[in-house]
Amino acid sequence: MAVCTGCSLLCDDIELEFEDGKISLTKNLCRKGEGRYRSLREDRLVPAVDGAKVGFDEAISRAAELLGDAENPLLFGWSNSSLEAQRIGIDLAKKLGATIDDTSSFCQGYLMEKVLRGEYPTCTLDEVRNFADVLIYWGSDPSSSQPRHMSRFSYFPRGEKRQRGYDEDRTAIAIDVRKSPTVVIAADGFFRIPPGGDAEFIEALLAALGGKIPKVKDKKMKKKILKLGSTLRKAEFGVVFPGLGLIYSLKDEIDKLTPLITRLNEVSSYKLIPMVGHYNMRGFNQTLLEETGHINRVSFKDGVEHGTQFAVTEAVNDCDALMVIGSDLISALPAAISKKLARIPTVAIDPHRNLTTDMARVTIPSAISGLEAGGSALRMDGVKVEFEPVIKSGYRSDVEILSRIMEAV
Amino acid sequence: MANVMEVYQLLPKTNCKECGYPTCMAFAVALLGKEKIIEDCPPLIENPKYEKKLEKLRELLAPLMSADATETGMIIHTDKCYGCGNCVVACPVNVANDPKGTALGFGPKSGRAILMVEDGVIKCVNVEECRRFGPEKILCSACIVTCPSRAIEFV
Q1: In this structure, how many other beta carbons lie within 10 angstroms of the beta carbon of residue A18?
Q2: Are residues B24 and B42 in the same domain?
Q3: Containing structural domain, residue A141
């Protein structure tokens, strides 16, 4: 059995068949995971300096030179690296006096921090499978982003206390601005809200939970929310799966979610599991939290400092060298910030070629975790999953690359 | 999915019994059940006045007769499939045949599952176990309603 590192579900029931040392058939992999497995042979990165192909050792020494000479280096990425690589990455940041940040900075960071600090109640996905009866997918679309979420853990499988399956034992509620593929399944529990309407919906829901009439113009919606309030009150074990839709909609008002979570736990038992995308984002957040007391946006220049000025979107203004590992930063950020990034000397470590590696001064190809390199990672619910490499390849793991840079700096 | 009335409308409706069935309606049911083929109705083939009906009927039943459809009439549009496995876990036959595997959300463990995910898309095996198989079939739709991309249909 292999472990898929295509998303943060880390499915560990993957079966593979081999022919001539190559994977010839995969079983139980979703389309997203299958894409990751197929990418083994597509568009792999080559070690290069200033666009010219060089040897691996040369690329490492140039990367170490570039980072070592910088006054304000920024190390970014990490969500697609194993726990072991992340730990070396944090040590490297300490050694360089660098700023370190990961994808949670503009992703699930806020909610993940609340969960890791114990401010929001959470549970494991196995508990969801065994006990949960009300599932709220809020601004998230597991069918597209974590395809096996509903079939392996949340809605469809039978569990200890949920023996009769999805149609009798569980209720799926989807709150979204559009009719996503998840909504197709949870059609009865679909609440369509306007873009940016999440704060208003939270208030309406709080009113309904308190037995008051929600202040909503649409009469049908008013009735629906009242009914939802009663469904939520009757739940035995509810779980909220918030996605980026909710986070980007609430923006600075994200604290508005707290009273709802508190209220839900007054009427019944509710947990929250952020719908993490990358396979080990939670791992980085937890490791850095244990190390520094902060989940992201940390500078080691003068001891340990934390603040929004160390978020990648701000830190690009001050940094004079950048290392990106396992992330396509240029594609992810708005053009205005990408323009700034393009001017910074960059080291990119990635299994594949992408826009960030295209603009990088030094590129170092790495092995794909879970396929060519082993290690361990934290699933979106915090469960540690260990994985072994399933095929042999000449690519070095992130651990080896980072250790070599560490030695050379 | 073609229904029996649509098929009946395209038959001669003379109840000539040449096909071996007492009525054209019975023949329509047999056509949908794949017990008979269009060529078993001689008037429809031989009489030129039914030419248009014949053409429409062939068009209507093309998906049913195609090689893509399994014996239960299931067609999987692999280009649409996400490989999420919702149908694998929701299928009542899979749950009954594989209580330690698909029933709990894992991949099939017993070898008696009907649906499984291979190379990132759904595949139908052990088709004779499907509730829609055979003369005593039930119109089960568990795999259709749980598909987020509507990649499964029955003809």
Answers
A1: 11
A2: yes
A3: 109-272
Q: What pLDDT score was predicted for residue A21?
A: 83
Mutate to test the interface with A, among B117, B140, B144, B145 (most CBs of A within 10 A): B117
Cα–Cα dist A234/A329, whole Å:
44
- Put simply, whether B134 touches A (Cβ < 8 Å) is no
Domain boundary residue among B65, B82, B115?
A: B65
A20, pLDDT greater than 90:
no
CATH number (domain holding residue A100): 3.40.50.740
Q: How many Cβ atoms are within 10 Å of A383's Cβ, its own excluded?
A: 13
What are the backbone dihedrals phi and psi of residue A119, each rounded to the nearest 5 degrees, phi first? -80, -30
The count of other CB atoms within 10 Å of the CB of residue A23 is: 19
**Shortest Cα–Cα distance, B126 to chain A (Å):** 16
Integer Cα distance of A137 and A193 in angstroms: 13
Token representation of residue B13: 């409706």
Q: Decide: helix, strand or coil at residue A146.
A: coil
Contact, A381 vs A273, CB < 8 A?
yes
DSSP A152: I
Is the pLDDT assigned to residue A252 strictly greater than 90?
A: no
Question: What's the sign of the alpha-carbon dihedral B120, B121, B127, B130?
Answer: positive
Q: Do residue A157 and residue B103 have CB atoms under 8 angstroms apart?
A: yes
Give the pair of three-digit tokens for residue A14: 């993957």
Answer yes or no: do A153 and B105 touch at CB < 8 A.
yes
Rounded CA-CA distance A215/A238 in Å is 24
Residues A177, A94 share a domain: no
- In terms of Cα–Cα distance, which of B119, B141, B118 is closest to B130? B141
Distance separating alpha carbons of residues B129 and A92, to the nearest angstrom: 58
Answer yes or no: is A40 within a domain: no
Lowest mean pLDDT among A10-14, A215-219, B20-24, B60-64: B60-64
**Residue A219, Cα to own-chain centre: how many angstroms?**
37
CATH of residue B129: 3.30.70.20
| pLDDT(B68) > 80 | no
Residue A27 burial (10 A CB sphere; 0-12, 13-18, 19+): middle
Residues of A in contact with B88 (CB under 8 A): 151
Q: With 90 as the cut, is the pLDDT of residue A171 above it? A: yes
Count H helices and E strands in chain A, helices first: 18, 18
How many structural domains does chain A have? 2
- Give the contacts of A207 (CB within 8 A, at least 6 positions apart): A213, A214, A215
Partner residues linked to A362 by β-bridges: A49, A347
B81 contacts A165? CB cut-off 8 A: no
Residues of B with Cβ-Cβ distance to A15 under 8 angstroms = 107
Q: Tell me which of A272, A302, A320 is where a domain ends.
A: A272
* Token pair for B145: 């309603």
State the pairing for strand pair A270-272/A238-242. parallel
